């Protein structure tokens, strides 16, 4: 069994920064899970028949619950990709300042997207979403070009 340690050339400052902001994204995930569950209880919108018996309500659709659920689904479709590609980006020895800016903007865009979609119910969410997609695309291209 090979017990040789692998050295990853990541600046400690960037790794600590990355870990902190990824933890913020994970916390946002957890809040969205709670938000969906609480909105189901508040609006008495059970997910299935057995939950309906507890809530004494029929399974049905509800706009507020569905918005929360779709916002959470959007997080599930986008945040894991960012977590992976941004870690790989750290392996390219990027500049500290620009990397911190990119990560902050992405996290902020995810928070603002959720707020715009669930609270404001505004189309402003589209350009906010595009900011996050642009960042994911940029990071992906940088990683591919660095390791090709």
UniProtKB/TrEMBL annotation:
Q: Which InterPro entries match?
A: MAPEG-like_dom_sf, Membr-assoc_MAPEG, MGST1-like
Q: How does it sit in the membrane?
A: Multi-pass membrane protein
- Its Enzyme Commission number? 2.5.1.18
What SUPFAM superfamilies would the database entry show? MAPEG domain-like
- Where does this polypeptide localize? Endoplasmic reticulum membrane; Mitochondrion outer membrane
The portions of this protein that span the membrane are 20-43, 79-96
Major subcellular site:
endoplasmic reticulum
Q: List the GO cellular component terms.
A: endoplasmic reticulum membrane; mitochondrial outer membrane
Q: Where does the signal sequence lie?
A: none
Cite the entry's keywords alphabetically. Acetylation, Endoplasmic reticulum, Membrane, Mitochondrion, Mitochondrion outer membrane, Transferase, Transmembrane, Transmembrane helix
Per UniProt, the enzyme's principal EC class comes to: transferase
Coiled coil location:
none
Q: What is a single molecular function from GO for this protein?
A: glutathione transferase activity
| Reactions catalysed according to its record | RX + glutathione = an S-substituted glutathione + a halide anion + H(+)
- Report the superkingdom from the record: Eukaryota
One Pfam family assigned to this protein is MAPEG
Entry function: Conjugation of reduced glutathione to a wide number of exogenous and endogenous hydrophobic electrophiles.
Its subunit composition reads: Homotrimer; The trimer binds only one molecule of glutathione.
Q: Hey, which family's this protein in? A: Belongs to the MAPEG family.
Q: What is this protein called?
A: Microsomal glutathione S-transferase 1
Task: Supply the gene name.
Answer: LOC114337377
């Amino acid at each position: 069994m090979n017990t040789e340690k692998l050295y990853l050339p990541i600046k400690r400052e960037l790794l600590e920064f990355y870990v902190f902001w990824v933890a913020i994204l994970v916390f946002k995930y957890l809040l969205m899970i709670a938000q969906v569950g609480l909105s189901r209880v508040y609006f008495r919108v059970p997910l299935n028949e057995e939950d309906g018996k507890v809530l004494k309500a029929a399974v049905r659709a509800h706009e507020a619950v569905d918005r929360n659920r779709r916002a959470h689904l959007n997080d599930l479709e986008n945040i894991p990709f960012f977590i992976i590609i941004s870690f790989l980006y750290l392996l390219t020895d990027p500049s500290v300042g620009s990397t911190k800016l990119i990560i902050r903007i992405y996290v902020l865009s995810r928070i603002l997207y959720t707020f715009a979609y669930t609270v404001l119910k505004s189309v402003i969410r589209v350009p906010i979403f595009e900011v996050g997609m642009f960042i994911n695309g940029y990071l992906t291209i940088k990683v591919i070009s660095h390791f090709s």
